Amino acid sequence: MEFLYSFLWIIIVFAVFMIVCRWIIYQKAGKPGWAAIIPIYSTLVLLEIIRKPWWWLLLMLIPGVNIVFAIWAINLLSKSFGKNEGFTIGLILLPIIFYPILAFDNSAQYIYANTNEVNDIGGE
User: 20 to 30 A from 104, CA-CA: which of 14, 28, 33, 67?
Assistant: First the structure.
């Protein structure tokens, strides 16, 4: 039983750390950090960060389609901070390492800071 409590504490620490990382990523993108902890609103803010329309949220609710759009959104998040597809793979497979890099690395700057337009599904 003690092992389960220890494991639970480790999971809680990692979860809080990932929330802090998302909070900082949102702030780097000029959005409120607290938006990272509100379930549906955080996805809408993420869509604003990657410059995609709000109705992508509806596509992320369709089973099967949501996997494709989630990976696409992670790729666009990576690109919106000046990273490449290799970094996207890292965000997907090793998020505990790559999200903190995105959050705490000073070289990862939000590249859409000067524009406010939202692209449609086909454009980048």
Answer: 67
Reported as a single tens digit per residue, the pLDDT across 65-111 is 999 999 999 999 999 999 999 999 999 999 999 999 999 999 889 99
Nearest to 29 by CA among 113, 116, 107: 113
Under 8 Å CB-to-CB from 80, ≥6 apart: which residues? 29, 49, 50, 51, 110, 111, 112
Q: What is the DSSP letter of 123?
A: -
Tokens 């109705």 belong to residue: 55
Domain residues of the chain, as ranges? 2-104
Contact by Cβ (8 Å): 69, 54: no
d(C-alpha 122, C-alpha 77), whole Å: 16
d(CA 46, CA 48): 5
